Known about the structure:
By secondary structure, this protein is of the alpha/beta class. The protein has two domains: 2-289, Rossmann fold; 303-358, no CATH class. It is built from 13 helices and seven strands. Pfam families: ThiF (PF00899). Residues 45-291 form the THIF-type NAD/FAD binding fold domain.
Amino acid sequence: MKNECIREAAKTNGGTKHYNYPAVVDRGVGNPDLLADEVVSEHLTRNIQFFGLESQEKVTQSYVVVIGLGGVGSHAASMLLRSGVGRLLLVDFDQVSVSSLNRHAVATREDVGTPKALCLKKHFQSIFPECHVNAKVLLYDSSSEEEILSGNPDFVLDCIDNIDAKVALLAACVRRGLKVLSATGAGARADPTRIRVADLRESTNDPLSRSVRHRLRKDYGIDGGIPVVFSLEKPKAKLLPFKGPSGEEENPSDYQVVPGFRVRIIPVLGTIPAIFGQIMASYVVTQLAGLQVQMEPVVNLDTDHYCILHQRLIEHEELLYGTAMQVQETMVYLGIKTLKPLSSYPSRYEKMIFFIEML
């Protein structure tokens, strides 16, 4: 029902173009002989030199689903395409807006009002036409799960920023045994050096991650095992009040195509979601090619640094509360006294990380 509403809203929204959504034919898996084509081989020559021909063939024969095609998803999908992924399914219910042009990978002003999925497919045809691109103007939910996740994709990229849809998608991927990489909040950040890839249990300073972790654990009994791209940086701004055409504050829900989805009210520096998307594409392509890449640890401190931080925390607690007894007990429990790294206890050290960030 929601997806029918999306189609109708897209057709009747004042000031935008009207679209009839044709059925997209499933053209099957990537062509295993694609690299025999001279132009394709030249297009991917640097990848072949990097991975080797056999590994690049694995990429070319792969099928990847990208759900959510905004600042993060559009860049991820674009680089997957340019890297030679043979088959892509692009899914988003939303349209290109003028305000999304600061972060979208390929959209132009002429694309405003166009469904994001169709926008990407159009541009992709001129970049790597040999890729089988399937575009669906759909909202991910339980009613569209089978349509989106069937076909045994080699990887699913979760670039959704709505918690209900994100949690449902991640749970479905776990249930189906599908490899999935999830993006957390890229808005209101500015430091690209703080972006990491780690298990969901290790993501910190991100309200979306915390909510997703809680919901997955509470509703589905999932306590980790899902890789995510996230930033260690604290958000530099909060959601802004929504102002309508008159300039006065209005209720964002009055402008939403689908209830529960935000309407352009989070500050976003366009470079950060782009980097999130590039990281996701790099992670997936190397995984598909079979190249093992050691990701930067979330916390990478030696024993001396832990001892210094421990001492500062004791002093901080004594100054505020007159005692550091609980700090001593907590440190022993976490394993600091036995010189084990904090990353050995990913679900229990967030308070310590918070303190590190405050220093």
